[in-house]
Amino acid sequence: MKIENVDVLDIAREFGTPVYVYSLEELRRSIAEIKQLSPVTRYAMKASSNVRILQEMLNGGIKIDAVSVFEVKRALRAGFKPEDICFTSDVFFNADDVGYCLENNIFVNCGTLGMVEEYGRGWKDLGKGSNRISIRINPGEGHGHSKKTNTGGPYSKHGIWHENLDEVKRIAGTYGLIISGVHMHIGSGGDMEHLKRITSKLVEFAKQFDDLQTINFGGGLPYQYNPDLPQEDISGYKNILAERMKLLNSHFGREIVCEIEPGRRFVAGCGYLLGEVRSLNHTFDEDRKRLDYVLTNVGFCHLIRPMAYGSYHPIWFVGDDLGPEQDVIVAGPVCESGDVLTQENEEPVARRLPMPKAGDLMVVGGAGGYGFVMSSNYNTQPLIPEVVVDGDRLILTRRRQTLDDILQEEKDVQG
Ligand SMILES: Cc1ncc(COP(=O)(O)O)c(C=O)c1O
């Protein structure tokens, strides 16, 4: 199996496993596909903040949506300019964040009334920075690939509730702030039908803001992880957005800037996680049915999506003499029974795959979004390398962490 022109076995030999690998060719394809949907396209960098991926976005003319001031600083270090970045949050993580945004001219998209108020107070006190803000609206409904990624509706903590728009205008007015942007992001991994419908709602809300300059319809573009099913067709979104903008522009009698900010759709498909089969195991259920487990060195400390959301990722084994296909449960090395790559609704689910043996390579697909960025040191597992493939070239963008790296911030409390 190859990623661009490079054999996965060569990547595993050179960098060891587990290792994240990103194909620039696939990334560039998705950048081109998404960029034509909207006049301004931001990348929700929470999906993967790998420096090479950020630089590819920059070169592709994509702007940034950051969800923490640390992400803002990371984007700046990767080469973005302050004016390319929008900071979306429901809170400033601490009071220093307000000052940072004001002093560095970072456009802020506020998801709560309290955040608008804190920014307004900061702007008055500091006498610096911009008095223009965007507000994130909770339109009253949402959609996601899992309840945990649904970010709209009454059970979401995100955004200013749509019935509080008069209140947000009042608070902004008190501090002399101008609401020049409206935004919504109602879920990650939604579906196109829902996205199409909800965009009209945001347009109606947006009409209430006389100083409007930008409208941001958020991310949430769907991505089909199963390569045996047709990929989600997102091309129709361009016309939908154009129709919405026609209405909005005619309402205001001027051009409003249309923005979107997907994350997953940009990067999910370009990423692979290579691991190794370490051991086989089996059990018998109550009916004496045998359950076969393939234990690998890829755990939820490396890729948490299956455990957090029951997400599907394609899996391929690569070895000299793979056995015939059979039902197997693929799991990781973490000392926790939920550490299973093939699961749904918190239950292990067997998948029909050629039977590997210890030492064979495993390739997990669809791992470019919410993969490395959500990894952890659980079980004192070092963070793993990230490698970029560009044609024949392999570029190491992050080395493997060592135990010393993990321990260096720890204080010696002996005595
Ligand atoms: C504010 C915001 N914008 C955009 C996104 C990107 O979502 P997705 O990766 O589904 O496109 C997210 C992710 O949840 C988000 O929180």
Short structural summary:
By secondary structure, the protein is α/β, with parallel strands linked by helices. It contains 12 helices and 22 strands. α8 packs parallel to α9.
3D structure, described in words:
The longest helix has 16 residues, at 237-252. This protein is α/β, with parallel strands linked by helices and 415 residues long. The model has no long low-confidence stretch (mean pLDDT 95). Helix 6 (113-126) runs parallel beside helix 7 (165-175) and helix 8 runs parallel beside helix 9 (237-252). The chain is built from twelve helices and 22 strands. It has two domains: 90-262, Alanine racemase (TIM Barrel); 269-407, Lyase, Ornithine Decarboxylase, Chain A, domain 1 (Beta Barrel), CATH 2.40.37. It binds pyridoxal-5'-phosphate. Pyridoxal-5'-phosphate (PLP) is lined by residues 44, 46-47, 65, 67, 88, 185, 188-189, 218-221, 261-265.
Rounded to the nearest angstrom, the radius of gyration is 23 Å
N-to-C span: 54 Å
Number of contiguous helices: 12
Architecture per CATH nomenclature, i.e. the level-2 architecture of the largest domain: Alpha-Beta Barrel
E-strand count:
22
Helical residue percent? 25-40%
CATH fold-level label of the largest domain:
TIM Barrel
